[in-house]
Amino acid sequence: MAHFDKNKILIFIPTYNERDNVKPLIKAIEKEGIGNSKILFIDDNSPDGTGKILDTLSKKDSNLLVLHRKGKLGIGSAHLQAIRWAYNNDYEKLITMDCDFTHNPAYIKKMLELSDKYDLIITSRYLRKDSLKSWSKSRKTMTYIGHFFTKTFLRMSYDASGAYRLYNLKKISKKVFDLVKSSSYSFFFESLYFINLNHYRIKEIANALPSRARGQSKMKLSDIVTNMFFLLNLFIQTLINRKKYLIQDNLH
């Protein structure tokens, strides 16, 4: 059985109106036997009281950490805050996942087992033909359009919009994330783009996703449109000055 060093692994989960999901998800993660890790929640002042529930749970479980923000500041900004928090607190491996059970905790061990060989591990929706079988046609279409854009303009064949990842913070320079500008869903392909551009080792593993296991999706059509414009601007900026996105002191 693989051994993972105590207090070196951080699992990050952003929350907004997830009161029905947090407790079952914590139990599901703990069931995987990664008991030597910490779970960090960042809550954006959820109107449904998610933050208060997390505070209550954290008082009973020292492995739970909770940060509160004043309002809904964007999914990308939550991930950036968690990444910086992990660096500042000397964590070596950071796993990021959603709270709605679209990301099965059963993949955590597999990612950790691969984490010494790779700098970033991504769970991908595109490695299995049936991974999106429960999704609606409209959502599948939008997902494939987004994937086409990242392949065409950013030259990345990876699943660039997924949040279920493992970052090897021992290998990825913190300066990579200083390049990230997006505070919204664009964070996912933007951060991946900079990691890829700086030649870090990236590994994908297959992941079957339900549309959303519990609760309502928070992504809007306006988010998708904004993402497309952000992606095109990133493409143009790279054409103008690619060197500004290259980190000179890569650790690998």
From TrEMBL:
Q: Does the keyword Transmembrane helix apply?
A: no
Enumerate the SUPFAM superfamilies for this protein. Nucleotide-diphospho-sugar transferases
- GO CC term, one of those recorded: membrane
Could you name the domain of life of the organism this protein comes from? Answer: Bacteria
Which InterPro entries does the entry link to? Answer: DPM1-like (IPR039528), Glyco_trans_2-like (IPR001173), Nucleotide-diphossugar_trans (IPR029044)
Q: Name one Pfam family in it.
A: Glycos_transf_2
Q: Which GO terms describe its molecular function?
A: dolichyl-phosphate beta-D-mannosyltransferase activity
Query: Is Manganese among this UniProt entry's keywords?
Result: no
Key words, A-Z: Glycosyltransferase, Transferase
Please name the GO terms of the biological process aspect recorded for this protein, alphabetically: glycolipid biosynthetic process
Domain Glycosyltransferase 2-like, chain residue ranges per copy: 11-148
State the similarity comment.
Belongs to the glycosyltransferase 2 family.
- In its UniProt entry, what is this protein called? Glycosyltransferase 2-like domain-containing protein
Can you name the source organism? Candidatus Woesebacteria bacterium RBG_16_36_11
